[in-house]
Protein 1
Amino acid sequence: MKPELDATPRLAPGVRLNESTQQPRMLLMPERVLRLNRSSLEIVLRCDGKNTVRQIADDLHRLYSTAELQRITDDIVEYLALLHTQRAIDF
Amino acid sequence: MSTNFTPLALVAELTHRCPLHCVYCSNPLELAKRDAELPTQTWARVFREAAALGVLQVDFTGGEPLARTDIVELVRAARLAGLYVSLISSGLPLDERKLAALVDAGLDHFQLSFQGATEATGRAISDTNSYPHKLLVLSWLKQHRIGVTLNFVIHRQNIHELDAMLALVEQHRPGCVEFASVQYYGWALANRAALLPTREQLDHCVSTIHRAEERLKGTTRFVFVVPDYYAKYPKPCVGGWGRKLMLIDPNGTALPCHAANVIPGLQFENVKEKCLLDIWQTSSAFRKFRGEDWMQEPCKSCDRRHQDFAGCRCQAFLLTGDPAAIDPVCSLAPTRSRVDAILADIHLRVPACPEEKTEWVYRPNPG
């Protein structure tokens, strides 16, 4: 399921990042872990139940300004849908 | 001798004591006694050493981990060490205050086991009346923001309750549900004749579970552990021997998997004498089937060896007498006929109805 642009994703119960001192950064979940690359970490860090998908896309656009906003938004929506199916986030 | 493999998970078998007596218990037939159990401080050191070694998650299991009176301290110590903490539990003994204390101490995930979807089946499997209490635990769990997995162990004596199990899942909508077919080691092997489902039961079960999985997509993640006697290829047991997982039993013995001590001739180390890093790298038991050099044909030249690591060493030993042989459940195994013979024998038996008194051995409590 894809999130609406004004949805406010947050980590699902039982899901958290490992400590910031631990490398590489990973999402810890029941019985498994999800490895995060630089941009997926930036997205997950913003899944706090306050940021909307639109705000997350704006932030990431500022960080990686070489890509178009629409393209970044589409990618983020896809990634959040994947995390939702994996039961890593709720929205 | 060092290794390039890093353990990701530590299974902490805290005790073999348990209020339930499940006929498929995966604990060894020789159970660890209470007075031999590791003290709190030794476990705390093990958790720190595990995190330093690269372990990310610890599974508290048993027996029943809640039987340890220091369980809250143990959760706190593991979380302080930087580990993700799961409790694999029957839900007994537990009350609301104890659960709140566990969550406060940093518990990340609670896996609650169910023996069936009715009181009668629960009692028949575990020789304990625990089902009503489990439903209470399930309602308490909803008051906390932690991961919840419902675990149903599936076999011939409860597979007919699958619809009722799924109704429980749909009602409570946990983050994850696990339908784990019994694997035949320990007490389950002793009771195998009463537990193996028929092929027809299994096929019905798989299609029913897949339909439910589609219905609950995005709500509950489904995990289905196949009964490997019916599989075409073996399971990648523990992610490969000595590659990803380390188990510490109640006495502190470090094992590559929960059944490893059935294999004769292996020398195991104990965390009371050595640190985890040393054990992981040098223990002869961990090195015995690590990598691929020990493999025999047909595994040695089979492309699937990178996927399933030749299957389960304990199963190979239990069914063929040779722990380095190909797992006999594999369709490419010359010994596959032994598994087929076991299945053929099951097909001749009428599936037992739940009211019928089944002849089997309940797992007792250690002294």
Note: The mean pLDDT of chain B is 94.
Protein 2
Amino acid sequence: MSKTTLAAIALAFLGISLVFGCAGPRLKDQVGFGIWAADNDLWDEAVFRWKKVLDQDPQSVAAHNNLAVAYEKKGLWEDARKEYEAALKVAPDNPWVKLNFKNFKDNLKPEKSDKKGKAAQDENK
Amino acid sequence: MKINSPILLCLLAFLAACGGGDTYRKIRVELPAYSPLHPEQFEQLVFSGFLVAKEPDGLDLNKEIVEYFGPEFERRLHFRVTVQRVALESEELFRKPDFWRSLTPGPGRVLYITGKAELSRETRKAILGKAKADAEDPLARQRGIAERSLFSLSLHLYLIRGDSGEVVLDRDFKETKAYSNPKQRADFAFYDLAQRVKTKLFRPILSEERMQERYLLLK
């Protein structure tokens, strides 16, 4: 096989790889489609997609984590907690899941009241 | 190696397309605040009085609380608001379900609001910031010491279910504000401080949304 032919095959392969590689997450992959839906504020659709992922792969950290975020958005706190815990069970060191779970728990806490007292400075100025 | 370089290029391209790039997406999303209270379960809110630890002379803190927060609960949560003063002897009473159950006449969906309140006033000396009087600005403040009024409102609120006597919301608020007027009226100060409490109180009760950051995983 000549060098030129090899280069042509390489270029064609590169093109195909890029097309499928980029289009995959948006069009084919349910996780990516769920993210697209979430970006467009279609959270029910996102939940549907991520649940579908879990049907096929119950160990999907992305699906568990993303579902948890969607449940938070819908105010389903217990469901969100379960999904974060499931994600952390599969990937206990995943920094993004850990951060999300921390923020989730902070959101459940009552708003910190100003214990020290916030003296309004405007009156003094 | 030279012959294999296009194959290597293919492999790298494939890996980059399939496995490269970010693994997460940071999003800013409006999430509702968590509320342990389900307002739709109640139709009547009863102000049963507050244990008042301290209040300025001439100000009835219990009355002010009812007058300020009553209409807010009516307007925001559509509760029927009534007042039923109860003899509160100590804070322990807030955690006695039997007591609150005994107050509830029937199976009505009643929510009691009670707690502990304190409005204190202090006069403090403040050092004025400007070092020199500006000759061109006769209104400029002189260096010196001025008196300031400092009001603090402490409000420990309990919302209690009438049917079970269970505490559904237990929040502690402390707000302080300084006034340049040393003779600031206590009722006006209460109004300012209660406004701050109101914002913090109703945000979780109404599950108002707040912008927060979360990470979605791409794979």
Note: The helical segments of chain A are 3-28, 30-39, 43-56, 61-73, 77-90, 95-108.
